[in-house]
């Protein structure tokens, strides 16, 4: 009789821009789990010559390209986040490819726990793929300052991007687990350890 595959549990990890979601993802990751970084997958989908690259350049034009023909994601973001129609178009292009890649990685993985690190789990419908939702919580001012530092955005650019994300309050209502990332890193790590203990044993 063929060996039955172990059931997988997909833990969706999300939070608003600058919440510290990526830091929590690194804390959660163990040798027994697979971490899927949606932002990294999206970044990789912009490779020169890829289907996403061709569609994005066809829509936005060569003004978004660097001298080496790579897409300037900062410039693309500045254009898209001030034009709702452009942002919808960009998201339609990227998210379709991204969802297909995530489905494939989950299907092909032999790990029992899959951690899906994605800012827009709820907004894009990725929530249908996850069994449990973990939301990282931070104060609004913390989010702004962290985003300015990590992404090199000015305050207005951060606020503009926040407008297109579901509110933290809504995400928290949908969460199975919450990480309060407003305090010391050691306090965040304790919360992560407790959630890992509960989820890894489920």
Features:
5 strands; 202 residues; 52% helix; disordered N terminus; 10 helices; globular; alpha/beta
List the helices and strands and how they pair.
Blueprint: E1 9-15, H1 21-28, E2 33-37, H2 38-44, H3 51-60, H4 73-80, H5 84-108, E3 113-117, H6 121-124, E4 132-137, H7 140-151, H8 155-163, H9 168-174, E5 177-180, H10 185-200
Parallel strand pairs: 1-3, 1-4, 2-3, 4-5
Helix pairs in contact: 3-5
Structure description:
This protein is of the alpha/beta class. The chain contains ten helices and five strands. Helix 3 (51-60) runs antiparallel to helix 5 (84-108). The longest helix has 25 residues, at 84-108. The model is unreliable at 1-5 (pLDDT under 50).
Question: Which descriptor suits the 3D outline?
Answer: globular
Please describe the biggest sheet, giving its number of strands, its sense, and whether it closes into a barrel. 5 strands, parallel
| Class by SSE composition | alpha/beta
Number of helices: 10
Helix content: 40-55%
Strands, total number: 5
Order of helices and strands: EHEHHHHEHEHHHEH
| Rg calculated over all Cα atoms | 18 Å
Sheet with the most strands: spatial strand order: 2-3-1-4-5
- Uncertain stretches: 1-5
